[in-house]
């Protein structure tokens, strides 16, 4: 085989590998949120989804215990380390270079490093959060996912242990105005804006048109501070639970902030415009017409677990 033939063979092999990689990455999701592959079906493929320490839960006042600690929950995030936003087919997700972005204190033993954050929402503003409080639902819920770097060497290793991950949950709310909505001129269009736009979150929203389809990625063009996505009041609930998406591993220390943050209707509608299929696939004939209209898991029994309240 001469040099030209060798180079040609290498080119063909590389092309085949790229196609195979793309095929693997964009295989139909084994799970989702429609009637065929929704949360009630997950346990058939992911047995841990039927476990006794599953999330989310309804946080009820009658179950709360006071959490008294002199270790204040604290975080330090590096805005420049939020690298890109992607569409994995069921939400938007921001990947983070966790170096220097840490969470500690409160119910946590050790330091937890930020890995990624993502969002859940519903078809309407009356649902979408995964956790609920005394049965009350919010329009959405942000999850900031951290792993225990004090005990484990990687996110994958940490996800195997009950204290491996720590997730901050932040409720999202669109507040309807109490006075008539004043039209806003945007370009040549008059729009009626509902709710207050979240400026830090908008750094993600403005990139979502580049990740409309599953498998697409886009760079975050400006520094994005995850800490600016958290509510001003740092009071929270905490309990031991699981990932809310498959494999639903029971490895999470949950910290759910009591106060929601406000976003605009326009921002929430942009979330709902994402698609669960790739640009090369046919639109699935599901009840959502291929859009990620709803991506929250319903609440599950608390069982014998404790939920603690910190008024930090």
From TrEMBL:
PROSITE patterns: ALPHA_CA_1, ALPHA_CA_2. It catalyses: hydrogencarbonate + H(+) = CO2 + H2O. It holds the Pfam family Carb_anhydrase. One of its GO terms (cellular component) is cytoplasm. Its EC number is 4.2.1.1. GO terms for molecular function: carbonate dehydratase activity; zinc ion binding. Its cofactor is Zn(2+). The keyword Phosphoprotein does not apply. Residues 29-311 form the Alpha-carbonic anhydrase domain. InterPro entries: CA_dom, CA_dom_sf, Carbonic_anhydrase_a-class, Carbonic_anhydrase_a-class_CS. The keyword Metal-binding applies. Keywords: Lyase, Metal-binding, Zinc. Belongs to the alpha-carbonic anhydrase family. Reversible hydration of carbon dioxide. This is Carbonic anhydrase. It comes from Dendroctonus ponderosae (Mountain pine beetle).
């Amino acid at each position: 085989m001469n040099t030209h033939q060798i180079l040609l063979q290498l080119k063909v092999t590389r092309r085949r590998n790229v196609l195979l990689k793309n095929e693997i990455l964009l295989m139909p999701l084994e799970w989702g949120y429609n009637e065929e592959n929704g949360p009630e079906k997950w346990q058939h493929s992911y047995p841990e989804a039927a476990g006794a320490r599953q999330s989310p839960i309804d946080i009820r006042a009658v179950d709360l215990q006071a959490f008294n600690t002199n270790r204040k929950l604290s975080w330090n995030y590096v805005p420049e380390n939020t690298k890109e936003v992607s569409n994995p087919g069921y939400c938007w997700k921001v990947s983070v270079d966790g170096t220097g972005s840490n969470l500690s204190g409160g119910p946590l033993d050790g330091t937890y490093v930020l890995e990624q954050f993502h969002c859940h929402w519903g078809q309407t503003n009356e649902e979408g959060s995964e956790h609920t409080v005394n049965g009350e639902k919010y329009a959405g819920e942000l999850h900031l996912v951290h792993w225990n770097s004090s005990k484990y060497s990687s996110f994958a290793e940490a996800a195997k242990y009950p204290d491996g991950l720590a997730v901050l949950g932040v409720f999202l709310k669109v507040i309807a105005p109490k006075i008539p909505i004043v039209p806003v001129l945007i370009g040549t269009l008059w729009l009626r804006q509902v709710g207050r736009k979240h400026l830090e979150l908008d750094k993600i929203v403005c990139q979502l048109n580049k990740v409309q389809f599953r498998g697409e990625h886009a760079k975050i063009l400006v520094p994005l501070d995850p800490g600016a996505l958290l509510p001003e009041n740092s009071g929270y609930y905490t309990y031991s639970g699981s990932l809310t998406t498959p494999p639903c591993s029971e490895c999470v220390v949950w910290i759910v902030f009591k106060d929601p943050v406000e976003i605009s209707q326009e921002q929430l509608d942009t979330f709902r415009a994402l698609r669960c299929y790739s640009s090369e696939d046919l639109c699935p004939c599901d009840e959502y017409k291929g859009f990620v209209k709803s991506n929250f898991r319903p609440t599950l029994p608390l069982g014998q677990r404790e939920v603690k309240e910190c008024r930090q």
